[in-house]
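User: Good morning. I'm curious how magnesium ion would be positioned relative to this chain. Could you predict the structure with it bound?
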Amino acid sequence: MIKAIILDLDDTLIDTTEQLTEPWEEMLVLVLSEQTGRTLREIKSILKRFKKTNMPTNKLTLAFCEHFGINYNAVKEEVSRRISLSSLKLSYDAKRFLRSMGPYKIFLITTGSKILQERKLQHLGLVGHFTVFFDESDGNKTVFMKKILGKYSSEELICIGDNIKNEITAANSLNISTIRVLKGKRKDLRPEKKDETPTWTVHTLQEALKIIETQQRVYLHKTALSSRKPTPSRRIPTVR
Ligand SMILES: [Mg+2]
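Assistant: Good morning! Here's the predicted structure, ligand included:
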């Protein structure tokens, strides 16, 4: 029986690629202009040269910082502190999903700058809704999943995320069922190995919710069947 959900934030619960790529680039240009003394126009034209389709903002930022010989972490933190979040909104799909999560404990494991991830939760009014683990390292969520496994068995958990490596492979390695949401910059990536293959693949959180509910029904049905005791055969008294 599923008791808890391990949820990812970016491009799973929120549409980060769609809503925050532009604000990130705008702030990155401003920060780099301030730090290098170059004009916004110059920085923007260099950014265009670096940018590739579906390039994650962290890779773009790193490439940019290396080009200028500037400290990547310092720039990342500065952009995280100052980026405008006004375009960030919870989708109807996400709101409906969260409203249906009442029976489950939610563990949110999110990778990236803690400053920015906290700002996102604050902005969306989601502080206190989940137990949050901030992963500021390389996206290896196994460490946090193992902590959750101290409280729940793998059969009681389900992991929902968009990232083949960070969520799907990590949860698969711990025998936790996985739902991959095809969203954001990674939506066209295909699993190449068995351990990268999710148990289910969906396009929306509503579909993920249906899977969870179906799993619950299957579990309850199985439990009901196994608890049904065979009826003892009645002995017919023999008439002498
Ligand atoms: Mg994600």
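The CA atoms of residues 55 and 185 lie 7 Å apart. The chain has two domains: 4-14+89-227, 20-82.
Let me know if you'd like a different ligand tried.
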